[in-house]
Amino acid sequence: MKEALVTVTCGIDWSEKHHDVALVDEDGTLVAKRRISDDAEGWRALVELLAEHGDHPGDPLPVALETSRGLLVSCLRATGRTVYAINPLAVARYRERHSVARAKSDHLDAMTLANILRVDAAHHRPLPEDSELVQAIAVLARAQQDAVWNRQQLANQLRSLLREYFPAALKAFHVKNIGLTSREARAVLQAAPTPGAAAKLTFRRLHALLRGSGRQRNIETWIDRLQALFRGEQLRQLPLVEEALGRQAQALLLQLDAACRAADQLAEATGEAFGRHPDAAIITGFPGLADLTGAWVLAELGDDRTRFANTRALKAYAGSAPITRASGKSLVVHHRKVKNQRLAAVGYVWSFASLRAPGPRGHYDYRRAEGDRHSSALRNTFNRMLGCLFHCLQNHKTYDESAAFPHRQSMRLSHAS
Predict the structure, then answer these.
(1) C-alpha–C-alpha distance, residues 378 and 205, integer Å
(2) How many DSSP H helices and E strands does the chain contain?
(3) Are residues 114 and 21 in contact, defined by beta-carbon separation less than 8 angstroms?
(4) What value, to the nearest 5°, has the Cα angle with vertex 299 and ends 294 and 305?
(5) What is the distance between the alpha carbons of residues 26 and 29, in angstroms, rounded to a whole number?
(6) Among candidate residues 80, 97, 127, the one where a domain is terminated
């Protein structure tokens, strides 16, 4: 956590068209305020205003906003300033400390942000000083993660729709490693979105569709299976209703196809950028992490080694460490709900994939034997692996299972002897 003795702090209330700037001194007195535009001219006005009140390249003034994104934030970070992204809920609570009238304005919000830095800067986390490469990786990785979630959401919508009028299609593509998001399913259903159209698909037409989707093996077996399912007896909607539902399915398929292509293209770009980062070899050395999942992890951790004071801070940020609520005789320990949701999501995938390795698998089995449910045991495994990753990144070391899970290794040796 960065701490500095400053006499002036800056708060900026951000909006799409303009920003309100307020500067307060160490006594909380307003020394300057200005409304600037959201363009290059407004940026110059902000720099001049800060320079008039003690800002210089060697010791820039800290700035607080309610957002961590946008061109203004990017420009502030590029100048080497310490920038704080304060949660809007925390700003609202701080405002209530000084007024119960619930008065609110853009100028007052800017002053509130400046005063938060003046008295409570040590209790807030500044934006990390990440490299340009890792910031680019974060953009690509988060966009790819969003595309994956969007793809799954559209697939769920399509599945619900097909259940209403075409359950044979769900059965046809309910195969290992094949689902509604597969190229085979999208090609066939786009050509025949209704049971009536699917029953009329000939051997030749199905062969062309499967070959065009990229399938090269077992095409004849697939054709026989699809024709048996599509031409078998099944419940049907009324003809006009079935046709309308088919049009709706085609519209969803267009969206699903675009989401699948976006996810694939972003995955390729993310992997390429991740491979250029020096931490890639350390991250992918862990069981359960590959180029894509490793990029997701790096996007949320960054490469600013001073961002997290210790492993406890990182684990709390990721939501893997439990939280305790104690009051009188009441003591409750449960998992965190306020966390980095993206890192927590990849943590579940990471810990599940790592179970192929003996160390994580032994730790997971131990937690299950102690009474943990599947999700709790995976979260505990993620917690352990995250601590190991923090140590390896801080010390530039590669993953060593005997050091990460020494108790499990000793148990294996004792059983072997």
Answers:
(1) 46
(2) 19, 7
(3) no
(4) 100
(5) 7
(6) 127
Q: What is the pLDDT of residue 3?
A: 47
User: Is 332 within the bounds of a domain?
Assistant: no
146-165 in b/e burial notation, b at 16+ Cβ within 10 A? Answer: ebbebbbebbebbbebbeeb
User: What's the CA gap between 265 and 248, in Å, rounded?
Assistant: 26
Alpha-carbon radius of gyration of the chain = 28
CB-based contact 147:269 (threshold 8 Å) = no
What would you measure as the largest C-alpha separation in the chain, in angstroms?
A: 82
Q: Which residue from 194, 218, 219, 221 is spatially nearest to 208, judged by alpha carbons?
A: 219
Same domain, 300 and 398: yes
The SS3 assignment for 153 reads helix
Considering 127, 150, 169, which residue would you say is the last residue of a domain? 127
Shared-domain flag, residues 156 and 120: no
Residue with tokens 């997290």: 308
Two tokens at 202? 């000939």
CATH number of the domain within which 62 lies: 3.30.420.10
pLDDT digits (tens, 9 = 90+) for 128-172: 999 999 999 999 999 999 999 999 999 999 999 999 999 999 999
Whole-number Cα distances in Å, 198 to 2, 25, 185, 234? 64, 73, 12, 12
**pTM of the entire predicted model:** 0.86
The conformation of residue 177, written as its DSSP 8-state character, comes to T
Residues 189-220 have pLDDT tens digits of 999 999 999 999 999 999 999 999 999 999 99
Paired residues of 10 in beta bridges: 23, 63
CB-based contact 308:387 (threshold 8 Å): no
The answer to whether the beta carbons of residues 396 and 316 sit under 8 Å apart is no
Residue carrying the six token digits 């995938």: 349
Tell me the residue range of the domain where 168 lies.
Answer: 136-272
359: nearest Cα among 398, 408, 415: 408
Q: How far is CA 13 from the centre of its chain?
A: 26
Q: Is residue 330 part of a domain?
A: no
Same domain, 346 and 383: yes
Helices 239-275 and 132-165 pack at an angle, to 10 degrees, of 160
Cβ pair 57, 72 in contact under 8 A: no
Residues 6+ apart with CB under 8 A from 348: 375, 378, 379, 382
Query: Taking the mean position of all CA atoms in its chain, how far away is CA 45?
Result: 35
Q: What are residue 347's phi and psi, to 5 degrees? A: -65, -40
| Position 194, amino acid | T
Residue 297: both structure tokens together? 């992890």
The answer to whether 286 touches 354, Cβ cutoff 8 Å, is yes
